[in-house]
Specification:
With 248 residues, this protein is α/β, with parallel strands linked by helices. Helices cover 37% and strands 23% of the residues. Bound molecules: adenosine-5'-diphosphate and magnesium ion (MG).
């Protein structure tokens, strides 16, 4: 089986931390699926994503994207994945267009290609009318949508999104989720993290629950609900496996 993502026994202990961020995490994700990486605060989701895109080095274990090692094949991996980080990664004093031209050039794209791709994405994500405004003046939902566009200009095979719908209004969220569904239907792989269980239930073929840096369980939302005692929805399954203690 060739996987989009294959992670084996990943360990990461940040300097000064009191517990490992990743404690032997293993998981695999098939191509052309949309997968939700779910876990309470501090479970290690962002660390896992940062390792996949080569921003953080693991202490041990392996992480592969399309069969290539994330720590050694960074250039190839960056060409294959679009990353939408948890924090907005755009220049707030530039307009959306200026951001896209700058980011597109970093990917080695020519002006024509950038314009064509960005225009298409601006239309699909409802930002066309605002593309000449400075990003600093955008609402939270607009910033998130612009962040998604920036990550897709190089037309990656897979997109990895870290809480793309956190703190956005219902309209923006619906648009983002519809866009992701469509993106997956075009043959892409999606990995995303979220705290919204109904959302994961709605768009994910599969969810992977992690906690304290370890794999807990994975499966389709429907399968997990059916196979876990006294669970009617994914949120029940999540609480069943991760408990009720606070993780502030
Ligand atoms: N740069 C860092 N330095 C020290 N500790 C970190 C750093 N980044 C994350 N952590 C810690 O690692 C654990 C996992 O964090 P993270 O991967 O951000 O989890 P999640 O995204 O699931 O909330 C947390 O306990 C967090 O405080
Ligand atoms: Mg996080």
């Amino acid at each position: 089986m060739s996987y989009a993502i294959e992670i084996k026994e990943l360990k990461k202990f940040y300097k000064g931390a009191w517990a490992p961020a990743l404690d032997g995490l293993s998981l695999s994700i098939q191509k052309n699926t949309s997968v939700g990486l779910l876990g309470p605060n501090g479970a290690g989701k962002s660390t896992c994503i940062n390792i996949l895109c080569g921003l953080v080095s693991p202490d041990s274990g392996t992480a592969k994207v399309f069969g290539r090692d994330c720590t050694t094949d960074k250039i190839y991996i960056r060409s294959q994945i679009g990353v939408v980080p948890q924090q907005i990664a755009l220049f707030s004093n530039l307009t959306a267009w200026e951001n896209f031209r700058y980011i597109g050039r970093l990917y080695g794209l020519d002006e024509n290609t950038i314009n064509k791709r960005a225009q298409n994405l601006l239309d699909r994500l409802g930002l066309d009318k605002h593309a000449d405004k400075r990003v600093g003046r955008y609402s939270g939902g607009m910033k998130r949508r612009a962040n998604i566009i920036a990550s897709l200009l190089h037309e990656p095979e897979m997109v990895i999104l870290d809480e793309p719908t956190a703190g956005v209004d219902v309209q923006s969220r619906t648009l983002i989720l519809d866009f992701l569904k469509e993106y997956k239907q075009q043959g892409h792989t999606i990995l995303y993290t979220s705290h919204y269980m109904e959302e994961a239930e709605q768009i994910c073929d599969e969810v992977v629950i992690v906690d304290e840096g370890k794999f807990v369980i994975s499966g389709s939302p429907r399968e997990l609900v059916a196979n876990t005692v006294d669970c009617k929805k994914l949120e029940d399954v999540f609480l069943h496996y991760t408990g009720h203690s606070l993780r502030d």
